[in-house]
Amino acid sequence: MTEPVLEVRELHIAFGALKATDGVSLTLRAGEIHALIGPNGAGKSTLIGLIAGSLSPDAGQVRMNGQDVTGQDVAARARAGLARSFQVSAVAPDLTVLQNVVLAVQGARGGSYRFLRRALSDRSLTETATAQIDRVGLAPCRAIPAGDLAHGQRRRLELAMALAQRPRAFVLDEPMAGMGPDGAREMTVLLDDLRHEAPILLVEHDMDAVFRLADRISVLVAGRIIASGTVDQIRADDQVQTAYLGEERLP
Amino acid sequence: MRREPLINLVIILLLLAVPLTAQAMDEPFIVTLATKVAILALAGVGLNIALGLGGMVSLGHAAFFGIGGYMMAVLAAPVQAYEPLMTWPIELAGTKSMPLIWLGAVIAGALGALAIGALSLRTSGVYFIMITLAFGQMLYYFAISWPAYGGEDGIAIYVRNGFPGLNTLDPLQFFALAYAVLLLALLLAHRLGASPFGLALAGARQAPARVAALGIRPYSLKLTAFVLSGAVTALAGALYADLNRFVSPSMLSWHTSGEIMVLVILGGVGRLFGPVAGAALYILLEHLLGGISEHWQFFLGLILLGIVLFARGGLIGTLAGREVAHD
Amino acid sequence: MSAMLLIEQALNGLQYGVMLFLMAAGLTLVFGVMGLINLAHGSLYMVGAFACAGVAAATGSFWLGLAASLAAAAAAGAIVELTVIRRLYARDHLDQVLATFALILVFSEGTRWLFGSFPLYLDIPAALAGPITLPGGIEYPLYRLVLIGIGLAVAAGLFWLIGATRLGVRIRAGEADREMIAALGVDISRLYTIVFALGAALAGLAGALVGALQSVQVGMGEPVLILAFVVIVIGGIGSIKGALVGAILVGLTDTLGRFLLPAAFGTFLPPSEATSIGAALASMLIYILMAAILVIRPGGLYGRV
C-alpha cells in the first residue's frame, strides 16, 4: 500500500480544561475523498487548524507525503502541497476574481517578491488562473471584485484558488455551507471530479453530499474519532446514530 | 470611475506650474513652498506604501524622516568642519554630494525600518500604532540627549549639498530635483501596487489567513513593504534637511509622524496621488490660515475633524468617487 | 549614603510610575471597552493641569484647584465623547488617529489662546511642602510621598470599581461582548460616556498633581501620553492590573536608569563620555524594555492575546 498523502497521528490539543482534539489519527490516500463529520462543537475546525498549521498540537504528528510537518507553519505546509478552504469565505474582497486566483498561483510557484513587473501582464500566471476560474464556472465574473460576489460564487472562488495551488491534498471546510440545493449539487459534481487531481479531506454538514462523495467517513465527537469506515459501515454504526440523535438523524 | 487619472494629471501639472509661475513673478518664497509640498508628498508616498498598500497604521514614520535628515547631517557635517567622517576601521570622508547622501539615507532608513518593523509587526491593530509611535519617540529622545549632532538644538549645514550638473542653491533648480524624485517615487509606487508583490501585499492586508494558506507569509510581505516605505520616507527626510539646511530632533518628533499621516489621509489613503494632493492642501491650509490667525492650528484641527467625520476618502476620494479595483 | 540616594530615586520612580498609571488606566479602559485609540488623552491631562493652576491662582487654594481639575477634565472628556468620539467607535483606527490628532491641535492651540504661551506655575500646598524624614533617616519630599499614596489609593479604588460594582460588571461585560450588554438592557452610549469621562478625570488629576512639580504648559500631556502607550503595550490592552504593573515598571526603569547608567559607564569611561552615553542610553531604556517584552509576550504581560 502506498504512503498516505496526509497522515495525522495521535494529535492532542487542549484549551484549558477542554480537550478539543483528543488523540485523533487519520489518513488521506491518493484518489479518495475522506469525509470528516460530527456534531457542532466536536472539534472539526480545531482539527483542520492543526492540519493546516494555524494551531500547533500539544502532542502528536502531522505528516505529508511521509514527511513530518508538525513544526512547520501554515505557509510552509501550503508550499508542501496542502490547499485549504475556509468555513467562512476568506478571499481578498477588493481584489478581482482573477487577481485572487493569480495570487494563489503565485503562492504555489513563488515569485511574490517581484516588485516592478505587472502581475497581470505575466501570461503564465494569468493563463493558469483563468483556466481554474473557467473550471469552477466563474468565467463571466473574472473582473468583478471578490467582495461583490454572491455567496455561492465566493465558495467557487475559494475552490478555484485551492485548485490553482496545484495541491497534493485538499482540506475543505464545509464547501457547501450556505449554498442552495442547486449550488450544492453543482459543487458535488465539481468535488467528485476534483479527487482525481488530489485527495480531499472534506468537512461537511450536508449529509447527502457526504454520502454521495465519500470513500471513507470518520466521525468526530468531543475531540475523538468514534468511528471510521465506508459509507455503509458508518450508516450501520449504532454509536454514530447515538452521537447524532437530537442533532440530525442520518438518512 | 475613470476620473482619477485625470485628477492626478491636473495635480501633478499644477505642482509644476505654480513654482514656474512664481519664478516668473519673482516670488522665490512660493517656489520654496512648492518644494516643501513635493518633499512632504514624497514622505507621504513612502508612508502610503505601508498604510495604503500594506494596511499598517504607522504613527512612527518621523523616525525614518528624521533618520534621512540626520544621515544628511552625518555625511555633510564633517566636510563643513574639515574633518573625516571616521578614521576607524577605515578612513572615510564625508560628502556633500546629494546622490551619495540619498543612498546613505535610503540604506539607513531601510535598516531602521527593518529593526522597528520586525518588532512592531509581531502585533497588529492598536498595538502596532502605539509601538511605532513609541519607537519613533525613542529616536527623538536619543537625538535630544546625544550631543554629537547638536542635541536639542540640531545642526545647521550652511551650504546646500550639490547635485551633478545643477545649481541646487537656485530655488527653482532645487524644486526641479525634488519634483523629479517625487515623480520617480510615484512611478515606483504605481509599479509596486500592480506587481506580484503588490498583489500579495493587498491580499495580506485584506485576508492574511488566506494568503498564509496560499504559501506566502504575511509577516514577511508586510515587513518588506515597511522597509520600502521607511526607505522612501528617509529619502524625503534627506531632501527636507537640504531644503532647510538644518536638522533638529523636531524632524523625529511624533508631530511630524502625525503630519505625514494627516497629509496622506487628507489626500486619500491608498490613492497613488493622495499624498501629493494632501501635502498641497496641508501647506495651503497652513499658509492661508496662518495669514488669518496666529492660532491657525486651532482652525486646522477643526477642519481636520470635519474632514474625518464628514468627508471620508480624502480629497481624491471626494473628487474621484469610489476606488476601482486595480487591474 | 549611596544606598539612601538609591532609595530616594526608587521612590521618585514609584511616584512617576503611579502618575503614569493614572494616565494609562483611562486609556486602557477606553481601548478595552470601546476599542478606541485616543491620542487626545494627553490633552485632558493638560486641561486638568491648567484648570488646577487657574483656579488655584484665583482662589489661593490648591485643593479647590484639584477639585476643578477633576471637574474640568471630566467635563471636557464628556463633551468630547458626546460630540466627536462617539462617531468614531464604528470607524477604523486610522480615522480615530486622525480625529484625535485633530483634537490635540484644537486643545493645544485653544489653551494657548486662552492662557498664552508662557508656562503657569502651580505651588505645592503649604501643608505638604518640605521634606519628611522616613525610617532610616532618609529625607524625602512629603508632596511626592502623598502623590504615591493618592496613586495607590486610586488604583485600589479602580480595582474595587471594576471588580465589585455594577458599573464594573458592565464595563467588564462591555469588554467581552458589546452586543451582549446591549441585550442586557444597559444604555451602552451612556456607559461609554461615563467610562470616557472617568478616564478623562484620572488624566486631569494626574496633570494637576504633576503640574505642581513641573510647570504647567501647552503640550505637557504628549510625552506622558506616549509613555502611557508604552505602559499599555507592556501591561496588555484593557488590563488595569497590567497598567499598574507596567506603569511602575516604566517609572522605576526610567528613573533608576537615568540615575544608575551614567554611574555604571563611569566605571570604565571618562566622566564626560560616561554622562552623555549613559544619558542617551537611559532615555531609550523604557523603549528597550518595551521591545524586550514584545519579543517575549507580544500581547503584553497581562494581555488576553
From TrEMBL, chain A:
Gene3D superfamilies xref list: P-loop containing nucleotide triphosphate hydrolases
ABC transporter domain: residues covered: 6-247
GO molecular function: ATP binding; ATP hydrolysis activity
InterPro entries listed in its UniProt record: AAA+_ATPase, ABC_AA/LPS_Transport, ABC_transporter-like_ATP-bd, ABC_transporter-like_CS, BCA_ABC_TP_C, P-loop_NTPase
GO cellular component terms, A-Z: plasma membrane
Superkingdom, natural source: Bacteria
Alphabetically ordered keywords of this record: ATP-binding, Nucleotide-binding, Transport
UniProt cross-references to Pfam families, sorted A to Z: ABC_tran, BCA_ABC_TP_C
Name under which the protein is recorded: Amino acid/amide ABC transporter ATP-binding protein 1 (HAAT family)
Annotated source species: Rhodovulum bhavnagarense
Automatic annotation (TrEMBL), chain B:
Keyword terms: Cell membrane, Membrane, Transmembrane, Transmembrane helix
Domain of life: Bacteria
InterPro entries noted in UniProt: ABC_transp_permease, LivM-like
Transmembrane feature ranges: 34-55, 62-80, 100-119, 126-144, 172-189, 219-240, 260-285, 297-320
Topological category with respect to the lipid bilayer: Multi-pass membrane protein
Entry-linked Pfam families: BPD_transp_2
GO molecular function: branched-chain amino acid transmembrane transporter activity
Gene Ontology cellular-component annotations: plasma membrane
Locations listed in the record: Cell membrane
The protein's name: Amino acid/amide ABC transporter membrane protein 2 (HAAT family)
TrEMBL record, chain C:
Location(s), subcellular: Cell membrane
Keyword terms, alphabetized: Amino-acid transport, Cell membrane, Membrane, Transmembrane, Transmembrane helix, Transport
Pfam families listed in its UniProt record: BPD_transp_2 (PF02653)
InterPro entries: ABC_transp_permease, BCAA_transport_permease
Transmembrane segments: 14-37, 44-64, 70-89, 101-122, 142-162, 191-213, 219-237, 244-265, 277-296
Membrane-related topology note: Multi-pass membrane protein
Domain of life: Bacteria
GO MF annotations in UniProt: transmembrane transporter activity
GO cellular component entries: plasma membrane
BP-aspect Gene Ontology terms: amino acid transport
Family the entry assigns: Belongs to the binding-protein-dependent transport system permease family. LivHM subfamily.
PANTHER family: ABC TRANSPORTER ATP-BINDING PROTEIN (PTHR11795:SF442), BRANCHED-CHAIN AMINO ACID TRANSPORT SYSTEM PERMEASE PROTEIN LIVH (PTHR11795)
Protein name: Amino acid/amide ABC transporter membrane protein 1 (HAAT family)
Species, as recorded: Rhodovulum bhavnagarense
